[in-house]
UniProtKB/TrEMBL annotation:
Annotated PROSITE patterns: FAD_FR, FLAVODOXIN_LIKE
Official protein name in the record: Methionine synthase reductase
UniProt-listed InterPro entries: CysJ-like_FAD-binding, FAD-bd_FR_type, Flavdoxin-like, Flavodoxin/NO_synth, Flavoprot_Pyr_Nucl_cyt_Rdtase, Flavoprotein-like_sf, FNR_nucleotide-bd, NADPH_Cyt_P450_Rdtase_alpha
Coiled-coil segments on the chain, per record: none
Membrane-traversing stretches: none
Length: 698
């Protein structure tokens, strides 16, 4: 990866699900058009770069995982730079620019990037370019695209400054940079939509293609007066388009006539050890007429070394839906080849720098195995994928629409009809039937099929050798851009897997009963979780968990009950639980168990609310947990401030957790007689001290 020192910069990425890597690859690809060369590495590959001696500018793209942690690939790097023995000038020689990825649905937005950025500053490193923080909640591209656009001038200035500091003439550098291909090439397309094509192959390698559409006449019928996934309206339909560069192909797939065995699914994880464990019980916790269906599954971990604490999360390795895999094979014309083994390798002569076979793709397995266990076929297609699909589409109008959807001019259409509609590859192939992508394209652009994480809903002390968890069966209702409804990848699979066992238990909600099962699933631990009981049992704590958010708190209470039975000489603090659901008689999860915890003293206070039940009282009962919390303002303030207790929140981020934190801020403001800003600072201190903890999802 050696390159001309005048034009080289170090490009590091830290990714959890592949987004940061894809953005880094886009930067790497665009660099050539600007006369620069990116020396790109995963931040975990610390044997391939050395920031202690790095003289060239450094660009870092880093995502955030969990509730604010750096991605797994950055853990060693973060641990290294957080060494307290490092001097304040350790990185005084370093010039860097950082792009953080996050989701503002979560409290610690872009905290992975912020953590690295803050520590590099503390160690003397200097920005050559302002830090960018991209929000997946509204669309990463809203920040990513302009940040990359501005990067090239910042790098040029950094190189010039570097040479001036070295006392060298910058004339040679200036001329080499100015000789870089001009980015704003324009491509004149004089044909009409029916014959739309890219005429200049040379321009495909530039980072932007500007298309001038001449003589296009679009007559919209009444039903086409509104934009849709397959149809655009002015101004997008009449605009010249700025579309991404065509990503170079780099994967080669060859079918083999040999036979063998597929890898075990446990080999697909990159961190930790996977355990294949039997499902010993399945119970439906909700009534048939409940809005959502909640299931409890019990796993037998007695024959494994898998260990956990109440409050931990763990991951389930799940496959794609078998019908969707077969449908995809059918559309690709590969249905008869699903069981054939394929060899996946890097394409010879590829223009993609540093191309390697994706780690989540086995070098050799059946095609169906790859589509079932390795690729996230439900993933929302990135714009780079749409750009590649343009080249696989024969119909001119379909080609144009795909170009619009990946263009800057079509950004709002992309958000509305693809991102917000949860459109996946299958939906696109149905909507654009002339699009026939190659198998290698899917492997290049579809991300790794991620294991799904769940909160533990049990205590190993209370139920030795058992692990329980609770989930709602996720439902994606049909919409205009996606005319079919679907269940969640993992929850749908689990529900189908345990259906026979569930049938055996459907006449009882006794979670102590159950039948044996031969079905097994593969699980692995998820590290770095701080959502645990206070180390001191005498410390009081409050739990807020509506719906399936109650899951980890059942484990908390089981654990506390067992400790109370075994440690009669210990002092135990009071416990509060705020629970809410829609209907008292349909989805009040663990109602009997909670009553038992109250009766035996494990749970001191239980406060419940029901959002959809009508009230006959003169004063309406509160509907949501955040409303109930406000009724106990003095108690909340006492537990958090005077008794230095803990406050746990689990459940939906957008519709519940934010409301709860707002309620706590108001309580702190009122009880401490301070303004809201000061109360928010107090809550921030509680978060920092790990006494206000969240396990939330969006």
């Amino acid at each position: 990866m050696c390159c001309d020192l005048k034009s080289r910069f170090l490009l590091l990425y830290a990714t959890q699900k592949g987004q940061a890597k894809a953005i880094a690859e886009e930067i790497c690809q665009q660099a050539g058009a600007h006369g620069l060369e990116a020396d790109m590495h995963c931040i975990s590959e610390m044997d391939k770069y050395n920031l202690e001696t790095e003289k060239d500018p450094v660009v870092i793209v880093i995502s955030t995982t969990g509730t604010g942690d750096p991605p797994d690939t950055a853990r060693k790097f973060v641990k290294k730079i957080q060494d307290t023995t490092l001097q304040p000038d350790h990185f005084a020689h370093l010039q860097y620019g950082l792009l953080g990825l996050g989701d503002s649905e979560y409290t610690f937005f872009c905290n992975g990037g912020k953590t690295v950025d803050r520590r590099l500053q503390e160690l003397g490193a200097q920005h050559f370019y302002n830090t960018g923080l991209a929000d997946d909640c509204v669309g990463l591209e809203l920040v990513v695209d302009p940040w990359i656009d501005g990067l090239w001038l910042a790098l040029k200035e950094a190189f010039l400054l570097q040479k001036e500091k070295e006392g060298m003439s910058s004339n040679a550098l200036s001329s080499s940079l100015s000789a870089a291909p001009h980015v704003g090439h324009e491509l004149n397309l004089s044909s009409e939509v029916q014959n739309l094509k890219l005429e200049d192959e040379r321009l495909r390698s530039s980072d932007v293609l500007t298309q001038k559409l001449v003589g296009i006449h679009l007559v919209a019928s009444a039903r086409d007066s509104e934009p849709s996934l397959v149809h655009s309206v002015p101004p997008v339909s009449q605009s010249a388009l700025n579309i991404p560069a065509l990503p170079p192909e780099y994967i080669e797939v060859q079918f083999e006539d040999t036979h063998g065995e597929n890898p075990h699914v446990s080999s697909l994880i990159s961190v930790g050890t996977a355990f294949e464990v039997p499902v010993t019980k399945a119970v439906q916790l909700t009534r048939e007429d409940a809005v959502k269906t909640a299931l409890l599954l019990e796993l037998d971990i007695a024959d494994t070394v898998f260990d956990y604490q109440p409050g931990d999360t763990f991951c389930v390795i799940c496959p794609n839906n078998v019908n969707e895999v077969e449908e995809l094979l059918q559309i690709l014309g590969l249905f008869d080849k699903g069981e054939r083994f394929v060899c996946v390798r890097v394409k010879q002569g590829t223009k993609k720098k540093g191309a390697t076979r994706p780690q989540h793709i086995p070098e050799r397995s059946t095609l169906k195995f790859i589509l079932t266990w390795c690729l996230e076929i439900r993933a929302i297609p990135k714009k780079a994928f749409l750009r590649a699909l343009v080249e696989c589409t024969s119909d001119a109008e379909e080609k144009r629409r795909l170009q619009e959807l990946c263009s800057r001019q079509g950004a709002s259409d992309y958000t509305q009809f693809i991102r917000d509609s949860n459109v996946c590859l299958l939906d696109l192939l149905h909507a654009f039937p002339s699009c026939k992508p190659s198998l290698n394209l899917l492997i290049e652009h579809l991300p790794k099929l991620q294991a799904r994480s769940y909160s533990v809903s049990s205590s190993n002390l209370y139920q030795p050798g058992k692990l329980c968890f609770v989930f709602n069966i996720v439902e994606f209702l049909a919409c205009p851009a996606r005319p079919v409804s679907r269940k969640g990848v993992c929850t749908g699979w689990l529900a189908e897997l345990v259906a026979p066992l569930l049938h055996c238990n459907k006449d009882t909600l006794d979670t102590k009963g159950g039948s044996s099962s031969t079905e097994k699933i593969s699980i692995f631990a998820r590290p770095n979780n701080t959502f645990h009981l206070p180390a001191d049992p005498s410390v009081p704590f409050m739990m807020v968990g509506p719906g399936t958010g109650i899951s980890p708190f059942i484990g908390f209470l089981q654990h506390r009950q067992k400790l109370r039975e075994e440690r009669t000489d210990w002092e135990f603090g009071e416990t509060w639980l705020f629970f809410g659901c829609r209907h008292q008689d349909r989805d009040y999860l663990f109602k009997d168990e909670l009553r038992c915890f109250l009766e035996n003293g494990t749970l001191t206070h239980l406060k419940v609310c029901f959002s959809r039940d009508s009230s006959t009282a003169e004063v309406a009962s509160p509907k949501y947990v955040q409303d109930v919390i406000r009724l106990y303002a003095k108690e909340v303030a006492r537990v958090l401030l005077k008794e230095r207790g803990y406050f746990y929140v689990c459940g939906d981020k957008k519709h519940m957790a934010d409301g709860v934190s707002d309620a706590v801020v108001d309580i702190l403001s009122m009880e401490m007689e301070v303004d809201k800003l000061e109360a928010m600072k107090i809550l921030a201190v509680l978060r920092e001290a790990k006494r206000y903890l969240q396990d939330v999802w969006s």
